[in-house]
Amino acid sequence: MSPTPYELIGGETALRSLVDRFYFYMDILPEAQGIRAMHAPSLATAKDKLFKFFSGWLGGPNLFIEEFGHPMLRARHFPFPIGESERDQWMLCMNKALDEIETDPRLRENIRTALQQLATHMINQEATGS
Question: What pLDDT digit, counting tens, does each position of 11-23 carry?
């Protein structure tokens, strides 16, 4: 059986590092303050949930589903106004975090592409025309 992306990326340790770096960038980048403001002052719960979601999403233990049920990502994010700007802020932080993980470049790009599609799916606000 082929190793899962979870295994290829480095398992729990690497995934926790990715999530930590993602939220580190969300916390410090002025360009990401729009999405940072959507989170609680402490990012501990968000980090835990994202780690658990990514674990199952990448083929590791289904920690999120075991604790919270089906992710229903769009429904869970619907209370937050997410447009292209918010998606781009999220991806800015994630791209910076992904760039730091030591893994096969093709795997990194496959994950990046899948996350871009996922982030686009979270958009729930229409773009305003100029």
Answer: 999 999 999 999 9
